[in-house]
Sequence to fold (1452 residues):
Amino acid sequence: MVDPVDLLPGGTLDTGLLNTAVNTLVDGVNANAASMDVFFILFSGYLVFLMQTGFAMLTAGSVRTKNTKNVLLKNVLDACVGLVAYYLFGYAFAYGPSSNPFLGHSNWALSDNTQDFHVFFFQWTFAATAATIVSGSVAERTSFYAYLGYAFFLSGFVYPVVSHWVWGGGWLSDIFTVGAKDFAGDAVVHMVGGFAGLAGAVIVGPRIGRFDADGRVVPMPGHSATLCTLGTFILWFGWYGFNPGSTLGISNQSPDANYTATAARCAVTTTIAGAAAGVTTLIVIKLRDHIFDLLTILNGILAGLVAITGSCPWVEPYAALVIGIIGAFVYMGAAAALLALKIDDPLEAFPIHGATGLWGAIAVGFFAREQLLFQSGYGNDQGWQGVFYGGGGRLLAANLVMVVAIAGWTLFLIAPLFVVLNVVGQLRIPREMEIEGNDISKHGGEAYPPDAVITEEMLAQKTIDNLGMDESVRRDPSGEASAV
Amino acid sequence: MVDPVDLLPGGTLDTGLLNTAVNTLVDGVNANAASMDVFFILFSGYLVFLMQTGFAMLTAGSVRTKNTKNVLLKNVLDACVGLVAYYLFGYAFAYGPSSNPFLGHSNWALSDNTQDFHVFFFQWTFAATAATIVSGSVAERTSFYAYLGYAFFLSGFVYPVVSHWVWGGGWLSDIFTVGAKDFAGDAVVHMVGGFAGLAGAVIVGPRIGRFDADGRVVPMPGHSATLCTLGTFILWFGWYGFNPGSTLGISNQSPDANYTATAARCAVTTTIAGAAAGVTTLIVIKLRDHIFDLLTILNGILAGLVAITGSCPWVEPYAALVIGIIGAFVYMGAAAALLALKIDDPLEAFPIHGATGLWGAIAVGFFAREQLLFQSGYGNDQGWQGVFYGGGGRLLAANLVMVVAIAGWTLFLIAPLFVVLNVVGQLRIPREMEIEGNDISKHGGEAYPPDAVITEEMLAQKTIDNLGMDESVRRDPSGEASAV
Amino acid sequence: MVDPVDLLPGGTLDTGLLNTAVNTLVDGVNANAASMDVFFILFSGYLVFLMQTGFAMLTAGSVRTKNTKNVLLKNVLDACVGLVAYYLFGYAFAYGPSSNPFLGHSNWALSDNTQDFHVFFFQWTFAATAATIVSGSVAERTSFYAYLGYAFFLSGFVYPVVSHWVWGGGWLSDIFTVGAKDFAGDAVVHMVGGFAGLAGAVIVGPRIGRFDADGRVVPMPGHSATLCTLGTFILWFGWYGFNPGSTLGISNQSPDANYTATAARCAVTTTIAGAAAGVTTLIVIKLRDHIFDLLTILNGILAGLVAITGSCPWVEPYAALVIGIIGAFVYMGAAAALLALKIDDPLEAFPIHGATGLWGAIAVGFFAREQLLFQSGYGNDQGWQGVFYGGGGRLLAANLVMVVAIAGWTLFLIAPLFVVLNVVGQLRIPREMEIEGNDISKHGGEAYPPDAVITEEMLAQKTIDNLGMDESVRRDPSGEASAV
Fold:
């Protein structure tokens, strides 16, 4: 609240008052912009957090009923365990004020007591996303302790270091002078999750029965296409926090940038790429398999959304269309390749997030426009842009280094972890448990307990003798006379 | 970011500096307002997009399991195919800068490269809503190609032209000087969807078994009341983007209008109308059918939300209550009428969106208050308001022309399309497929595959012989020793 | 929109113009801040409203299929009936401008026609939350009319009066000079719901079969862990409206407060407490029961979110961790105590909301920091803060009075209502209806009708004779020739 002022006390201009008033107004304008940006970041972060719900529903729908509680719990704990790891260590590694090109090393457990809590919140939601992606690749046969271990490790160290490299002022942020550019995290988030998932899927091995004796794929459908659709829609919705939110502000704070137009462009290109990839998948699968394949189309949409994540504010709408279409092909190709290699990735997390994330990071090098880089606040005066706009290969080269470095780093850290866990017999659940399902043996019962379902027979019987009632209740039931 | 300034360098006022500083502040204040409005429009659009999820869940829950994937896919593609159509043509027809009273004809595929991407995004979400409504009316027996055709046509042409008429400066926007007024689209969106759905439901005919040999209605319940409830709640939530978001800004940019108060009023009237309609339906159905009918109450709530959509910022809270209550009766009456006419609209999309949308558009002519029209930025100085506030019938007349024109336009374009598709045998799926369900024949299997459900018998058997396992996995299972 | 101005017409400074311009800018800055705050409150309110969806899904998943429609309808009507009650009376009791220390008594049905509709909207979503909590405690065996009665009473009177005491300038707001402090409503909202639920659960008695003849607990699992997870995630998401939204603004309007930092801190502490409680529950239940218990962990997360609700802007991150961990223990302890006392609270609403809400309200007295109270706009100059920061016991004492007063008030009003209903036989449904379930007898059929599920047998039969078809449809099926 800025107070009104009378600049003409006694009819003459009080210049001291004027100077103060104008600078108070300067503060007021800046304060409004700053508040608006925090508001924008918080609500964008809320949407990214909601993606946990989307992943949970998508994963649940994609597995068999016998493992439903197991995958749901893993998704829930990605948020919880990941938060603890990111709060204690991760944020410090990623954005600690004391830092070197490799990692940050201060502000442990938010101990610096700074006023950037909204930044912590937003960044945590991204860490949680990276961790969640992995759970899909290793679903239905991985030990719970192994899962807890890698979720903590990924959220607390693997991902934060990568985000420091690209977004926290680390070595990739200025490589080849132009710096690797990955707006909302195709390499930083999706590749980390997707490649960690790939390592897991390879090392833990396929689910029992996924490939038959001749190596042919045996269909192993999840238990609910409705949950998959719900999850995908929620993820799409959450992506509007993920991509436009990565503008990290909505006010036009800087004279060189237009954050408002940047965020709006992100919303549009994200939508176009997701929709285009969905339509592409629809057509290709219809031609190939002669069905309108809902589940593959859902994954195609997710692939389109991943594909545009790295470049969303820097490309034209038509380019978003192209990036999304190619993203759908990358996803379908990678999915086919995994099956040909007998790698079982139940959620297709590597094709969607790993392979398509890689494509999206590279697409920046082809489609980014200089003026849009400026507009997003990534500007510089050096004329670097995508190959297709005559920018030469420097941006592309920087991003190629980035994808190689991030894939390498992720595999380098995660693969040994999974291998060691496997060697000591702590990676995969026992065969009998896998056949029976995780839920009964580890989680106290089925996700959909038969006891909770009333059947025609039970009603036909109309007897209460087998209901195990408390005798006192039986003798004096409350409300017996109730009309309702 | 506005920089501080010293207006008194050397102790005396620098008037040139002052003039610049004050005008920089003017720019800063305006920029903050503009950024805030884009922020508001984007997030409102996100909520409207989420309504796709709501429709998907509501539709899925309202059909039988055998068609679940089919209806889910149609909902998914409303967003995807509709986006392609709206991006390529629709937005140009609706809001192209080059326009005539009938349609716009420029900015194809966003080629003008303007900075109004947030407007495109917001308007697309409305187009997707109109398209989605239709799918409910023709669910469970309509050809997939027919569906793809009308979704593309509706999103790319039918709806955009209507929106141009009322919101894009077309002929209805200034009819009878006052102009037809439909704030968030009772006629523009809901009637288009509802009447297109009616045409479809009539022409495609009822589902097999919906009416018995004597013409009596056979109950044909959907498979999940939970999904219907989830969908309805998500739609209600999304409506807060649809109605308050249609303020198209939240800052008080204009001296004559108060967008802030307008948006807040929309949120309240929307809530009141939806809740009042829900309670009304509860009471009426209890009195009529002697049950507390969850599914009808959910539809009643939706009818209340539709009813207030056209007038939400222009009416008093008590009027919202009345509009919602009448909306519930309109919905229930139209639903009964359809059944009496042996028209099978599985989602009751016409009663909810078509008939109640018509009521909502007309209600503007009765309940709109002049001062609230001013407040919403629709003001003029001519004293026009609703009949109940002494405004004469001019506003009502304009809106009556609007509903007739929009119903006529929609039926005029959509009915022939459906008739032609029917004549060439491309509208309705074959009888055998309808009985079997769409999912098995066209979508590669059931939404809830029995294979994905573990049963007591399977567990009792505890054998893996019939699991089609890969022999190599059987011989050397990973992690056999795992304790978890 | 502020217009540019030329302060130097003819080259000399027009001081009158300058004075006007500067004050116009003052108005513009303030208007932007005010609009932003309304925007923030509206969207926060939308999130809180979405919590209804979360409660509905959580409750549905926690009951048996035979009562699913019943609990869903109760959740739907919490919003609808609660809105009517809060609109007509509740808001006036809570925040009516004419008021005394006990209650407000003006602005019935928003009749004052003020511009605070966003406040009404936000406050209503809190009233709906309080009402919804109760429905979990009395699920599966309570009369529908009894439910309608207490929902109306709670939303229209019990809760509004409490909110007046603490937030509306009532007697608790300045008790012991410092005033009871409950930021987002641990006592005001969660305790009201939780204690009303406790009264209901005790008086209505346990569900048939919940305890066996020897008083041992019989497991009575709900029908879908997936719905429980969905509901919990949606609640967590909605909590970002509940807690940060309770800042009631995001701009830094006051020189003494920083609303922006306050809201951001709330988001972080809320996340930390929820996650910490989830991890705590994971570990404790694993140690105690030897399972990774998804459902208890979900409730643990909710308990963590409740625990931090009262103190979220006033505590350090480490304190949020501690408050969440203790909250998990309070929840688990209260849940065990209820079972030991043979009280059947199907959703554990009292342990989560009542007991943990009480803990959260008391935690304020231990962990609140003075500087953070100032920052949130609750500041004063008297040096009061939590016991752990040397603030003495005054704040703790005020909050202890608050929790006693609110628990007493709620029980004092609700318990007699339930007792009277019970005496006249209107509280509990008849025994036969309870065994059969509410849905078939009162709600027109099952939530998941067997008729809507296609079975292998039905498909194998491939006959339509038993489908009750309309003969006219049979003789001339539309689209028989369709290829799709």
Remarks:
- Chain A is about 65% helix and 0% strand.
- Residues 54 and 235 of chain A are 5 Å apart (CA to CA).
- The mean pLDDT of chain A is 92.
- Chain A has one domain: 29-442.
